[in-house]
Design goal:
With 218 residues, this protein is an alpha/beta fold. The chain has a single domain (38-210), classed as Rossmann fold (3-Layer(aba) Sandwich), CATH 3.40.50. The protein has helices at residues 4-12, 30-34, 59-70, 77-92, 106-112, 116-126, 151-157, 167-170, 186-197; strands at 43-46, 49-52, 55-56, 98-101, 136-138, 162-164, 174-182, 202-210. The strands form two sheets. Strands 1, 2, 3, 4, 7 and 8 form a six-stranded mixed β-sheet that branches. The protein has a two-stranded antiparallel sheet with strand order 5-6. A hairpin with a 2-residue loop joins strand 1 (43-46) and strand 2 (49-52). Helix 4 crosses helix 6. The protein is globular, with a radius of gyration of 17 Å.
Length: 218
């Protein structure tokens, strides 16, 4: 049963398909669902550890995530959060007992009106009858990763950007860290490192889509 707060949010931000923005759809409409670009490698590994990710960052998914992230399309969190939750449950079952997210800076949150990764975490955690816990804060408003091309630039841009909070809660817990897009993994790596330094027993990750580089051609 949906809560009163959910009903109020629906009035303020009417539900739309996460992909095509068709009104009146909570989640992803059947037409878009049938055309989603699912990745054939939903579990990725890197400096961030292990990351569950259901979709490729391309086409309509890319457009929808940009709309969600930069153009006020916050209702897309419902559909994207459900896809993320399903993938994380399939790929990382039994590997986490606490859910958190990669936060934006307070300046960016005020500008956008919301934190997109937090919205994803709320929707994903609701599928497991729990709520995310804020375990990280961003200590400075660094330039957006999307404006940087190389992996080295992205790593340097997020160096020492995240600090743990609520350390008494996270200590010795296994944490699922949620973000929107996996590109080079620099952001997730920096955030996961901050959690590990603060005493987390383990960190696994999940994101909505992965930006794979095209395969080289002859």
């Amino acid at each position: 049963m949906r809560s009163l707060s959910d009903a109020v949010l629906d009035l303020l931000f009417p539900p739309r398909c996460a992909i095509c923005a068709k009104p009146g759809i909570r989640g992803v409409c059947p037409r878009c669902e049938s055309a989603l670009p699912y990745t054939d490698r939903p579990l990725r590994t890197g400096a961030f550890g292990r990351c569950a990710v259901p979709l490729r960052y391309e086409g309509a998914v890319r457009d929808a995530l940009l709309r969600f992230k930069f153009q006020g399309g916050r209702s897309a969190a419902v559909g994207f959060g459900a896809l993320l939750a399903r993938c994380a449950a399939e790929e990382l079952s039994g590997e986490f007992d606490l859910v958190t997210y990669v936060p934006v800076s307070e300046q960016r949150r005020r500008s956008r009106g919301y934190d997109q990764a937090k919205l994803l975490a709320v929707e994903a955690a609701a599928r497991w009858d729990t709520k995310p816990v804020a375990l990280l804060r961003k200590v400075r408003d660094n330039p957006a990763q999307s404006g940087l091309e190389s992996a080295a630039q992205r790593r340097e841009n997020v160096r020492n950007v995240y600090a743990a909070q609520n350390e008494d809660v996270l200590r010795s817990r296994r944490i699922l860290l949620i973000d929107d897009i996996l590109t080079t993994g620099a952001t997730l790596s920096a955030a996961a490192e901050a959690l590990s330094r603060a005493g987390a027993a383990g960190v696994v990750c999940a994101a909505v889509a992965v930006a794979d580089k095209p395969e080289p051609t002859e």
